[in-house]
Amino acid sequence: MTITFDQNSASSAPQPVRSPGHGDAFTDHMFTMSWNETDGWHKPGLSRLHDLTLHPGTIGLHYAQVIFEGLKAHRQADGGVAVFRPWEHARRFQRSARRLAMPELPEDVFVDSIEQLLRADQGLLSDDPSHSIYLRPLMFGADANLMLRPSHTYEYLVMAFVAGGFFGKALETVSVWVSHEHSRAIPGGTGNVKCAGNYSGSFVAQLQAQEAGCQQVVWLDPVERTWVEEMGGMNMFFVRGTGPGAEIVTPSLSGSLLPGVTRDTLLGLAEGMGYVPREEKVSLEQWRRECAEGRITEVFASGTAAVVTPVGHVKDRDGDWTIGDGTPGPVTLAMRDALVDLHHGTAPDPKGWLHRIS
After folding, report:
1. Which of 263, 325, 318 is nearest to 291 (CA)?
2. What is the span of the domain harbouring residue 83?
3. Domain boundary residue among 137, 164, 191?
4. Are 146 and 189 contained in the same domain?
5. Can you provide one Gene Ontology molecular function annotated for this UniProt record (predicted)?
6. pLDDT over 90 for what percent of the chain?
7. Phi first, then psi: what are they for 52, rounded to 5°?
């Protein structure tokens, strides 16, 4: 596939971003490509980051036929840059496309688009280990047509921004608020893929959590409203016990929660660190009771943006409680360190999860 380069896309050597803020320190370039029923995927190109021009009747705007991914690139110990598990993100992007009746992007094209953008913009990433380049592949239905149907044309693009810590000081615990009123997803819905419509519906509960003095909302299952599923847009983990042999439990994939790439990574790391990884249903009352009994000693959430974030306090309509002593626990910190070391290439990578950018 021949990739075009905008004649204005070249720039002088970029200077590293030292204070990236929260989601708006965009890099200089973007990758774009189109699809239609005649030509398939065509016109791949790298250009300067620019605004899009859309017809007001664009299908993606009206019917949320929009999917996306989120993955990160990190500075390596030798000064290079590597992106973490791009092939798994490519496969999840395909699953999201299938669910929304969109054309699948070949895995190698997905990874190549990431490589093209990082080759142009990796100089913006400093050597601060708390910084990363967050990459956002996006696909949307592009037809100017308001019939309730899938689009016949699509646009794919990749943009990026330099990221710092998702919650600011990464080692501080967060407080969470349990939502009994709202659901993030439903059985048979789109909760297990990354589509735009999943997220706007969660904002009202997130605002309620903030009004309660919490940083994040905890979602319960949408049927019984009994089982813990996710925290905001992150997967959750419960630690039972301490030290070697401690259980690291995450809610089973139910079809209404997202199979996170970081979730899968942590389950794999846990076993190699001497912990016992488990996937099982955990009820809200079980969580409360096992914390009171001292059985659940730590809780943390995981995600591409959040990495590993410890949870210290829970606010619920039936009473609040503290997890452990309310501070980050040793298992949480060990898991976070192991993941960060893997991101930066300072730990062995036997499964080849790091994809180096030349």
Report:
1. 325
2. 4-164
3. 164
4. no
5. L-valine-2-oxoglutarate transaminase activity
6. 87
7. -95, 145
SS3 4: strand
Query: What 3-state DSSP class applies to 3?
Result: coil
Q: Residue 7: which pLDDT band, with cuts at 50, 70 and 90?
A: low
Scan for tokens 């999943």, then name that residue.
Answer: 198
Q: What is the pTM of this model?
A: 0.94
- The Cβ of residue 285 has, within 10 Å, a number of other Cβ atoms equal to 11
Determine contact, residues 176/314, Cβ cutoff 8 Å.
Answer: yes
Burial (CB count <10 Å: 0-12, 13-18, 19+), residue 49: middle
Residue 193 CA to chain centroid, in angstroms? 11
Token code pair at residue 42: 């065509």
What is the CATH classification number for the domain harbouring 100?
3.30.470.10
**Contact assessment for residue 28 and residue 48, using Cβ atoms and an 8 Å cutoff:** yes
If asked whether residues 146 and 42 sit together in one domain, one would say yes
Q: Where are the beta strands (DSSP E) in the chain?
A: 4-5, 29-36, 40-48, 66-68, 71-75, 81-84, 132-141, 153-163, 174-179, 216-220, 228-231, 234-240, 247-250, 276-279, 296-303, 307-315, 321-322, 354-357
pLDDT, greater one: 130 or 6? 130
Residues 263 and 291 in one domain: yes
Amino acid at 88: E
